[in-house]
């Protein structure tokens, strides 16, 4: 009886070690959760172009540090971002080997022009970041108390392209009822020939599409009229939105397009 118990305990320990050495991880998107959630691996969560939010659901220590590096390398090989933001919330402990792994990743990413940032480093994890000097090399401006703060910083540090009347190089000037609004903080540009405004609190995104091969008149015919205060807005129908997204997908590589297409197709199926 006793040898059987010992074997069962041994197998359980091996399984635990295997899970710890190869923990679950996920690429996250943002959601508007009334309960306060923000980053999620749910399929409907919106990905942000140029930013990869990565969660490693374990402490980063000697027996899984190489696994972390391998997972990040594989992830970035698919679609290299401008920033890699690691959500360290589930990573309660960081040992010397884990700190060395993060520093190796930081150097490798810097050589490729990619910023390594970390959100929610607390407790023993943050202590080892400081003791190892990795926090100094990453820089305080890339260490954030929340994922939300990291996303805000990503948007604020992105270069703004374009110009308008009276704007300096790289500035954006909009005329709003005769008033000028310079350098809108949440305006980002995307290909093909489009730009978007995003409200990071609500997750609302407004896309401005330029030079798409779809006549504006045909979009207006099927548009849904929505009244906001004293203004009437025309919102493209879901069918036309799906068509525009598929055009965008054919011209660029963006995880956000795939997610939007899947979301719109699912809505159309359920509404039939």
Describe this structure in words.
The protein is an alpha/beta fold and about 270 residues long. Helix 2 (about 65-80) links the parallel strand 3 (about 50-55) and strand 4 (about 85). Helix 2 packs parallel to helix 3 and helix 8 (about 240-250) runs antiparallel to helix 9. The protein has two domains: about 20-155, Transcription Regulator spoIIAA, CATH 3.30.750; about 190-270, no CATH class. Helix content is about 40%, strand content about 20%. The model is unreliable at about 5-20 and about 160-185 (pLDDT under 50).
Strands of the largest sheet, in order across it? Answer: 2-1-3-4-5-6
End-to-end gap:
61 Å
Instruction: Please estimate the helix content.
Output: 40-55%
In CATH's first tier, which class of the largest domain applies? Alpha Beta
- Gyration radius, in Å: 23 Å
Number of domains: 2
By DSSP (H or I, 4+ residues per run), the number of helices equals 9
Helix-strand topology string: HEEEHEHEHHEHEEEEEHEEHH
CATH architecture of the largest domain: 2-Layer Sandwich
Mean pLDDT equals 75
CATH homologous superfamily caption of the largest domain? STAS domain
Number of strands: 13
- Described by the principal axes of the CA atoms, the overall outline is elongated
| Helix and strand composition category | alpha/beta
Segments where pLDDT lies below 50 for 5+ residues? 6-19, 160-187
Query: Biggest β-sheet, characterized?
Result: 6 strands, mixed
Give the CATH topology of the largest domain: Transcription Regulator spoIIAA
Q: Percent of residues in beta strands?
A: 15-25%
């Amino acid at each position: 009886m006793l040898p059987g118990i010992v074997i069962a305990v041994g197998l359980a320990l091996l399984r635990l070690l295997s899970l710890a050495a190869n923990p679950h991880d996920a690429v996250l998107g943002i959601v508007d959760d009334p309960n306060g959630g923000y980053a999620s691996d749910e399929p409907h969560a919106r990905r942000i172009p140029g930013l990869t939010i990565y969660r490693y659901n374990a402490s980063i220590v000697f027996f899984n540090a190489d696994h972390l590096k391998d997972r990040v390398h594989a992830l970035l090989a698919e679609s290299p971002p401008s920033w890699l933001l690691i959500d360290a919330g589930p990573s309660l402990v960081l040992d010397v080997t884990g700190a060395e792994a993060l520093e190796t990743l930081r150097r490798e990413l810097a050589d490729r022009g990619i910023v390594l940032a970390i959100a929610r480093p607390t407790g023993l994890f943050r202590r080892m970041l400081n003791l190892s000097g990795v926090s100094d090399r990453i820089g305080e401006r890339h260490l954030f108390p929340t994922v939300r703060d990291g996303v805000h910083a990503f948007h604020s540090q992105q270069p703004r392209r374009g110009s308008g009347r009276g704007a300096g190089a790289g500035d954006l000037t909009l005329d709003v009822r005769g008033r000028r609004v310079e350098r809108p903080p949440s305006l980002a540009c995307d290909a093909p020939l489009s730009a978007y405004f995003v409200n990071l609190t609500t997750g609302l995104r407004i896309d401005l599409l330029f030079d798409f091969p779809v006549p504006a008149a045909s979009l207006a015919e099927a548009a849904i009229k929505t009244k906001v205060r004293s203004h009437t807005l025309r919102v493209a129908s879901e069918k036309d939105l799906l068509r525009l997204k598929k055009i965008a997908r054919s011209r660029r590589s963006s995880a956000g397009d795939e997610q939007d297409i899947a979301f719109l197709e699912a809505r159309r199926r359920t509404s039939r």
